Amino acid sequence: MSDTKDHQESVNEDNPMGHPEEQPTGTDGTPKFGRLLIVLVLMVILIGFITFASEWLYT
Predict the structure, then answer these.
(1) pTM of the prediction?
(2) Which of 18, 26, 43, 57 is the most exposed place for a label (fewest CB within 10 A)?
(3) pLDDT (tens digit, 9 = 90+) per residue, 8-47?
(4) Which residues, in sequence order, are CB contacts of 26 under 8 Å at separation 6+?
């Protein structure tokens, strides 16, 4: 029961639902997704390599 009371005390008028604060973004306000984009490109290249290698191996 005290958890509910503590939760109600921490909720203010600007945040009535008690959502957590937003995640920080880059210095200019844009999300940081450069590393994610690099990993995505590398995974596409790896899948393409596996596809061509398996086709070469089994034909």
Answers:
(1) 0.48
(2) 57
(3) 555 567 878 888 887 766 666 666 678 889 999 999 999 9
(4) 32
Cα 43 to chain center, whole Å? Answer: 17
Q: How far apart are CA 14 and CA 51, in angstroms?
A: 52
Query: Cα separation of 36 and 34, whole Å?
Result: 5
**Interatomic CA distance for residues 50 and 36, integer angstroms:** 21
Helices (H), 1-59: 2-10, 34-58
